[in-house]
Amino acid sequence: MLRAAKQITHRGTNKRITYLCCKVVASTSNSYYSTLNQKAYKGRAKNSSGWSQYFLAPRGPKGWTIPPSSRGYGMLVARVLRGALKLRYILLGGAIGGGVTLNKKYEDWKDGLPDFKWLEEAMPKGEKWTQFSKALVEFGSSIKDVIEIDPRLRQLGEDKIDEWRRWFDTRLDDAIEAADYQGSTLNESREEIKAKATVTALSLSNDESRKKYEALQSQVENLQTEVINVQIKYQRELEKMEKENRELRQQFLILKQNKKTSTKKIKKSLIDMYSEVLDELTGYDSSYSMADHLPRVVVVGDQSSGKTSVLESIAKARIFPRGSGEMMTRAPVKVTLAEGPYHVAQFRDSDREYDLNRESDLSELRREVEFRMRASVRGGKTVSNEVISMTVKGPGLQRMVLVDLPGIISTMTVDMAADTKDSIHQMTKHYMSNPNAIILCIQDGSVDAERSNVTDLVMQCDPLGRRTIFVLTKVDLAEELADPERIRKILSGKLFNMKALGYYAVVTGRGRKDDSIEAIRQYEEDFFKNSKLFHRRGVIMPHQVTSRNLSMAVSDRFWKMVRETIEQQADAFKATRFNLETEWKNNFPRLRESGRDELFEKAKGEILDEVVNLSQICAKKWEEALSEKLWEKLSNYVFENVYLPAAQSGSQNSVNTMVDIKLRQWAEQSLPAKSVEAGWETLQKQFLILMEKARRSADHDDIFDNLKVSVIDEAMRRHSWEDKAIDMLRVIQLNTLEDRFVHDKSEWDQAVKFLENSVKEKLAQTEHTLGEMMGPGQLTRITHWKSLTEDQSKRRHVKYELDKILRTDEKHLPTLSYDELTTVRKNLQREGVEVDTDYIRQTWFPTYRRHFLKQALHRAYDCRKAYYLYTQQGTECEISCSDVVLFWRIQQVIKVTCNALRQQVINREARRLDKEIKEVLDEFSEDEEKKAQLLTGKRVLLAEELIKVRHIQEKLEEFINCLNQEK
Fold first, then answer.
1. 398/533 same-domain check
2. 930: buried, middle or exposed (CB in 10 Å: 19+, 13-18, 0-12)?
3. Can you list the positions of beta strands (E) in 429-574?
4. Is there a single domain that holds both residue 623 and residue 535?
5. What is the DSSP code string of 121-149?
6. What are 87-117's pLDDT values in tens digits?
7. What pLDDT sits at residue 207?
């Protein structure tokens, strides 16, 4: 039809129109026109809604003929011609309107683009920028050539595209100038220029733009935090899977060999054993208040003083991320140095080794360190106390344990937390307060010594200098800036009041980020060989220079202090262990020392056992529980919105009609959702019943109660019924409510009983409401010495008048007429009781409801034996049993709903709940804070401490034995 309309539009000849119209009709399905013509022959009265009645039935299987009637033929051609001409105007109008709409959308899109006119006012003008713009022509052209215009935009016209290109060129030139204003050069990449242009534009913008930028930056930080949390979660899952994979592989090898393989114990190096002891002590006593006095080298210094570079020089690898003046070390990093055949690094909680001779592994290691630091900073903080532990092994490395701390700062920037400065000071004092910690005090030689902040802290913790080693960095710059005599005083310990065991001078690099450790060490040696400052006799001793001499001196001092203190630490832990074991025997003589991990696994097993018991509940019990909960959820709606409005409406026909309408609306809207809600609550209730039953057992341990409750609450919060269940229940319930006839006597009896019980329940509630309104009866007042209040007395008088109305007309309507209200009020006035009409209506509502429910209960009694009369006369039975039929329909809906919910619980929901409980348990098992919060008490704390002390004492004894053998 579209092709025919186009041809009609272009040519417009009557001959062509007639030919095309006939062609359109001939190409249509024969069966379709056969049906239309059959309707036309039967008469226009049966088919009077279209032009199809003028086509005749086909006379052959492949073609059709036009009837001899000239009137029908003329009308046919006229109608087709009119439709074709109308189609032409529709196409022309649509083309014009579509073009206008597309142009309008383009204008709206163009207006929505950001406006950079403020850059024209912010940027300075002059010959300088004119000259510089010429130098950037070639670079700007290279960027423009990269841009590709969407071919679909070409349909909007070349003028629009040129306008868009000019706009983009202008904005691009402004961005390039802004980037150069901040110090960019022509050799920088396009990505760097764009980034600097953005920063410059934001810095030069007005206050409103600055606020928007700060809000955007806050959003970016929040997104980064979320990404870090997700990465941590998946990293834990990956490590867990790797661990399970290794265990499964070992089991497979054992089964394959069909014999038990004795696992060979790998002999650890002395420094590795000592590092493990330190890790255990860090987790046991992080405040150093009890026994963690073992030596470690604490690297402290001002920010950007070169302390990280000193540590990297000792480790012979660039293992830490670097920044341009910003704080990079945000958490303590414990580095264990050990000698080995290969230069590798490894984190304590990971099995991966990083080859430090490969630049790709070094980059990944630095990224991992930065990631762990950012992951440890939570809650808007800048620094963290969480220790990142790693081991670096390689040829020629000195064995020691170093802890790199965040640099001391004197001024905070706007992007730091308010307590950053104090947190760094406390952390530094925390590590230096260990009486056996070796303090490696780093001083920047390129700045004035009086500007140092770290020296005061060191003097407070080690005033005699018995465990402090002073290191002057960047002496190559100090030689150019400082007086040689001043440097001599610093390295001889005469410039500061701070005292130290030794003073050393090192060079930490040439200010290049990409220099390797070998290049830095070579530069350092060349500097000290050629430096005039250190060639002068008496300025400094040869053993006080180079990082190599520093690392050897620190290592010697470290092992000397280890040998002096390790025995004392072992004896202290032995005494602590004896005291804890005695306390345990006195308080818990019949229990074994079970830590949190063991208790958690036991509680996990008990919870999963109850999930298994949930699937073993019989179908009958499920349906009973579901039916009870479902009627509890639905009963109020059935009475208030369906039964009472319909039963109080009047005639039998109107009752049935209203019931059908109400039930259908109910089934289409709220009934399926309420049913799913009842199923979910039943599942939760049955599971809690099983947990409560287990809690009352003889072997129950109440130490798991908080954990079990928390796990179940979290799993239930996450659990939700499948969405498709609502649609499925809606179909089932609608089909069930369509049945309006009770099929047999047993179902009739069940419906009557269901009606009686439901009415009795509502009648009891109404009686209770009336009792509260009217007050206690005469007997109760006498026996319990109670009296009526003024309001209760008024209610009794009003009720007496209302009872007279109901006795006069037992089939009274639910509302009182105006005359009845006036009569009641006047009767009460004659008795001296003044009430308004609202007061009368409030009393009338429960009074009439009780009257109506009693009548409904009598009708239910009369309908007990009326089933055969109902089957003979249908709904027009002499005894009105529409109440029974309604409650039979409700009962059938409850039955089919309970059956469907039971199948969903057994087949789907119980398994999904089991899966969610396992997920919650896995998450809790990885969260040490959560376990400490849920598994607490004197028994748990004492067991945890005893297990840790016993473990540390065993490791200390093992280390001492190996240390004595090395002597």
1. yes
2. middle
3. 438-444, 468-473, 502-505
4. no
5. HHS--SHHHHHHHHHTHHHHHHHHHH---
6. 555 555 555 555 556 566 556 655 655 554 5
7. 55
Residue 77, domain member (yes or no) = no
Number of domains in the chain: 2
Find the domain containing 430 and state its range: 296-545
Residues 648, 759: one domain? yes
What global pTM score does this model have? Answer: 0.57
Whether the CA torsion 563, 569, 571, 573 is positive or negative: it is negative
- Cα Rg of the chain, angstroms: 45
The CATH number covering residue 332 comes to 3.40.50.300
- Where does the pLDDT of residue 537 fall: very low under 50, low under 70, confident under 90, or very high at 90 and above? low
Same domain, 526 and 657: no
Number of H helices, E strands in the chain: 36, 9
State the Cα–Cα distance between residues 340 and 397, nearest whole angstrom.
Answer: 8
The helix, strand and coil proportions of the chain, stated in percent and rounded to the nearest 5, come to: 65, 5, 30
> Is there a contact between 310 and 547 (Cβ–Cβ < 8 Å)?
yes
- Provide the percentage of residues in the chain whose pLDDT is more than 70: 68
The verdict on residue 10 lying in a domain is no
Q: What angle do CA 405, 406, 412 make, to 5 degrees?
A: 160
For the record, the structure tokens of 125 come out as 């003008």
pLDDT tens figures, 234-269: 666 666 676 667 667 666 655 555 544 443 444 578
Among 514, 545, 576, residue at a domain's last position: 545
SS3 state at 249: helix
Q: Looking at 529, 545, 561, which one is the last position of a domain? A: 545
Which pLDDT score is estimated for 90?
58
Q: Torsion-angle region of residue 402: left (phi > 0), alpha (psi -120 to 50) or beta?
A: beta
Answer whether residue 329 shows pLDDT above 50: yes
The answer to whether position 829 is within a domain reads: yes
Buried b (16+ CB within 10 A) or exposed e, 830-839: eeebebeeeb
d(CA 670, CA 663): 11
- Residue 294's nearest CA partner among 963, 965, 966, 967 is 963
* CA separation for the pair 870, 862 (Å, rounded): 12
- Give the chain's mean pLDDT: 76
Residue 915 domain-assigned (yes or no):
yes
